[in-house]
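Continuing the series of single-chain predictions for the mutant panel. This is the parent chain; the variants come on the following pages.
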Amino acid sequence: MKSLPIVFAFIFIGAAALVYATEQETNTTAQSSTEQAKPAIEKEQQAADESKQQATDRLNTLEHKEAVLTKPVVDPNKVDDSKVLGTETPKPVEKIKNKEEKAAAIAKAEQVVTQAKEALTQRQQTKAKQSRESLAVVEQLVKAYNARNIEEFIRVYAEDVEFYIFPNELLFKGKEKLIARYGLMFKKLKCIHSSPIKRIVHGDIVIDHELSETCSVDANVIDKRSELISSYQVKDGKIIRVLFFR
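Parent structure:
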């Protein structure tokens, strides 16, 4: 009877040892499989990382790549055949060889500048003279107008003088209608006085912004006052065109 428990003990120990050996074998097999699969996983992960980095590099290259501009090279000795400047063949610029040629070129350039200044000065002098003559004619006109002297008044006008209302409405033309219009006004009014508020003179054109005052009953009582703008064109000492602005 004592031998039976001992037998059971040996059986239990043997079974426990068998289970432990089986678990160890299982763990070893699983670890071996894991270690064998690990290089393949790492290799796939490395390939994926490399592919992602290449895509990023390509994207950065597209975003930051700038076009390289090259400066065109122009040969100054080559004849222009582009026809941009026409069919005339341009002459090459002669290079100055010595100090004498340089001095001659400078003297020629200074002469051209002096001639241009003299031409400009001459035009300015001609324009200034014309302005003085035109101003003298208009001042003579205003003086005759204020004196109600019809003979002196019409003397400063050309025979075929034209009167317009701005911009181009013809009022009348010729001295006969001028006499009929202003002669009657001079006789009817007791006083007339025109004085310039502002005057612009440019060559043959005189523009007057004037104050006009008239007396219809008493020569000492002004009963009408108005501002007028008139433009006079003068040629050969005579007024050829009058433009009224209303």
